Structures are given as structure tokens and as C-alpha cells.
Amino acid sequence: MPTTANTNVATNIDIDSDLISPDQLAQYHDEGYMILERVIPDDMLQMMREECSYLIGYIDCMMDYEKKDVLGLNHRRNRYFMTSKYNPQSRIWHFTFSELMAQITKAALGPEVYLFNEQWVVKGAEKGMKFGWHQDSGYVKHADPTTTHQPYLTCWCTLDDVCEENGSVYILPHSRAGTKDKIFDHTQENATNDLIGYTGDDPGIPVIAPAGSIVAFSSYAFHRSGSNNTDKMRRIYLGQYSTNPIRNTDGTVWSQDVHFIKDGQRVFDPHTDTFEYKTSNR
Question: How far apart (Å, rounded) are the C-alpha atoms in residues 249 and 279?
């Protein structure tokens, strides 16, 4: 049976209408997603690409050392999942906790925001694997079946132009999937270990957007992605934010719980943050 939750969000927050229009915000709250094109500044985008390249090289070196082509969810030159990599030595926290992300997360979640998870998702040229229909919250429920967490926000940030040919994301709006306040049960796919929550015929809405865009969608929204059939990598930075720390039923934190926004103001301080990495259940 699906898990349900109250998805109401405070709306008395000043949001830059040049960044997020009223129609875009209404679409997010009604249908579970909004597409913000070319909102990442060029210098920030270049930094993110450099950080991504460094991490791919780091993972490849680890594979070389262990004489493997597969390390966890990472498949050499095929796909990479690199999780919880913000730290004082990297530069990505400048984006993760930026004013841009503060505006987007407050619009979607309200005046209290925590970083729940962050990772890089890379599909290799002409090899990137597809991902089946799932809700991000489906992974939480699969690990903790009694969860009642509120929907969190996924910010799918494009380091490259994305299209159907290079494995972009497809979104299934709430009104077509019945997901506005439900987490559906997911089953594990044997071949990939991916979780699948929808097996219907609706193909969803493909996201076609330039580099520097952010697709912001609810963790309750079904989404999938295709394979990369181009000769270039498709690189994504994924930041996920919640209204409060998401915990397992035993009280432990499910992933991360870094306080970002308090009473509508940014409170993250890299000088006092503990940077204690927590291994995600996903």
C-alpha cells in the first residue's frame, strides 16, 4: 500500500520572480516539478564541471588500484554515482549552499531547509545505462517501510545540454500518476538492482534543457532516464533538500542532515560544519 503524507508548504516567503515565476512555482506544487533554464552562472558551472572531472578520475584510480572495472554503483566509463563529496577541500559546497539554491529550496519547501543528500550522476558516452520509473522517496521507503517523511526536493542540475538522446530525465506529473501525497511500493530489478515503482504505459515528459539548468522535482514524483546514445558524457549534479532531518524508525539519520536554511535565512557555515559523511541507504 502507498504511504501518504501532508504535502502543504508555507507560502509566505519572498522569492525572486525573475528566477522562479508564479506559474513555475504553481506547477511544482501541483504537478511535482519545475524546469529552471540557464540559472547556474557560467563561472559556477565551470567549477562544477572541473569538480566532476576530478571525482571521475579519483574513482577510476581507485578501480585501477583494486584491479576492478566496477566499484559499488560505479561502472568504469559507463556510469558513476559519487555521493557526499562536499567538504572543505572541494568547491562544490559553494553551489550546494548558494543563494541560488536557497531561493529554489525555500520556494519549494518553506523557511526550514536541510541538505538531505548530494551526489554526482554521470552517464558515459554511448554506454550510459537507463534507469526505470521510481520515486526518490521509494528508496527511503524500501529501506524503511514504515516511513512517513514529507516529500523532499531533488534538484537535478545539468552540467551539459540534456535531451532524449543523451539520457535526460522524464517526469510523470502528479496528476497522471497519483503521486502528490503517496509513496508507492517499489520492487528491485534483478539485472540492475534499481527500484521500480511504476510499470504503466505513460512515457512521461522528457526534459530538454541547456547546460546550467535545474530540474526541481518532488521526491514523490515518478521519474526515469534513458541511455546515453551520444559520443559525450552526460553529467548531472544532484542536490536533495528536506524540511527536516529524515530519520529511520530507530531514530538514526537516513542520509545527511546539514542545516541550510533557518527561519528563511541561510545558516550553513563551512567553518563550523562537521562534514561527517553518512553513507546513504540508496
Answer: 17
What is the DSSP code string of 173-234?
-HHHHT-TTEE---EE-TTT--EE---SS---EE--B-TT-EEEEETTSEEEE----SSS-E
**Up-side HSE of residue 264: CA atoms within 13 Å toward CB?**
7
Beta-bridge partners for 217:
33, 154
Q: 143: buried, middle or exposed (CB in 10 Å: 19+, 13-18, 0-12)?
A: middle
Q: What is the pLDDT of residue 102?
A: 97
Q: Three-state DSSP class for 80?
A: strand
**Hunting for cell 536541510 — which residue is that?**
114
Supply 141's cell numbers.
Answer: 521507503
- Say whether 86 sits in a helix, a strand or coil: coil
Domains and CATH numbers, the chain: 21-266 (2.60.120.620)
Mean pLDDT of 14-40: 94
How much is the pTM? 0.89
pLDDT (mean) for 146-169:
95
